[in-house]
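Aim 2, interim progress: modelling of the heme C-bound target.
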Amino acid sequence: MTLLYSILALLFGAVAGDPTFTKDIAPILQRSCQNCHRAGGVAPMPLVTYEDVRPWARSIKQRTGLGPRAGVMPPWYVEKNIGIQQFQNDPSLSDDEIAAIAKWADSGAARGNPADMPPPRQFADASAWAIGTPDLILKSNEILVKANAPDWWGEIPSIPTGLTEDRYVAALEIKEVNDVDPRSDNGRATVGGRFVFHHMIWRTQVLGARTETPENPVAAVTGDDTTNWPVHEVGRDPDFFDPRAARLLKAGSSVVSDSVHLHSNGRDTRSHLEIGFKFQPKDYVPLFKRAVFGLGNGVDIDIKAMESDQQLHAYTVLQQNTKITSFEPHLHAPGARMCLEAIWGYNIQTLSCVGYDHNWVRGYDYDDDYAPLLPKGTILHIVGTMNNSPTNKNVPDPRNWQGSGNRSVANMFIDLGNRVALTDEQFKEEMAKRRDKLHLTKNDVLIGCPLCSVVQK
Ligand code: HEC
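Predicted structure of the complex, ligand included:
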């Protein structure tokens, strides 16, 4: 840097052309980070004001630059160089934004002109329901997590819905309600410093009508009396279900979870979950039926000790025309990545590849105009990459071989994504809509829609 530039930099805190906090960085943080990184949010520190952010500049550069794998911020792991790229509520950063953050951190992390600062983002009161007043709120039993309690994974008592008639669910939101003062600071930089329910994988089920067996745990997520709901995780947004394919909450069903993960937040905490459902009207009938099939292997997983990059495979053949509305890899600690492929005729298309971090289990909802539309007979193939080596921080001791099972110390390999079945009529309509909307010609190839350009009007 020349002397003149150094003087300018001292005067204005930035060299002309270098990114500044107020102009370049604050808008990114508002959009993609402050959902969690704000006072009372689930993340360990707020990233709102310059004073908040400045000490973290290097760490922010590092965490945003990791690529689609464990540790990246925001926690979103879709690989951008392969497969479908259009998702709902995608908070990820563009390459330009990641580069701007790196340049900002490397050039002194200047504040910039205060007049460039965007107005602060407003957040709804954390105790308010983002889905509106729920029609039904179910509460789990209160539990006490002691300040020094070890992590706990396990099953909670089922919670009867009390429903006497079937209802379809338009939206779902889960809150943890506990006795921690949201304004206090316990100085713990762990996931959800205020919360103790790290995650809950759950379903509603008419008890007694249980279909799965230890040999076939996948049946638990495919049986008719069972509805699988999006996983609860600290910081997760509410779910609004496609109004054409709302999910069924069966009369007489109960909330069942055999995978709750409790994590102490450093003080004795009394806590319970509240599950809020917003219903469709009583006479609602879904246009699309949920496609019921399993895609995964819960039986003979074989993960060797001290090895990264081990592949697992599972397949299914679609018995109906199917629209895949979301992709949700469900692996356990050794999970590092999962890809979803569609094989149709002599074509193989990779629909999505995403990284996986067992600390941040999450699903990805396809944008409606890009959700895969696959004809009956398509083979779906999932490819899992397991890392059972010391480079995977989620594995407590990689010297252990790992096999199948429900507990967090054992393994699963499932795509828990949502799909709907389409009649031939609906399938053709959906493809026609897409051709119009995306202006597809017969020379276009749209990933995930092998017949979109073949069937012309
Ligand atoms: C969904 C919630 C969520 C979002 C969105 C999010 N974070 Fe985080 N962040 C967390 C949590 C929880 C942790 C602590 C656990 C961890 O390190 O993974 C964390 C940790 C971090 C850390 C490391 C802190 C430390 O103690 O070393 C940095 C830096 C960070 N986030 C930056 C960001 C930035 C920058 C963004 C946006 C581009 C972002 N985060 C988006 C929840 C979030």
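The pocket of heme C is lined by residues 32-33, 35-37, 42-44, 47, 56, 59-60, 63-64, 73-75, 91, 93, 189, 191, 235 (CB under 6 Å). The chain has three domains: 3-116, 136-287, 296-425.
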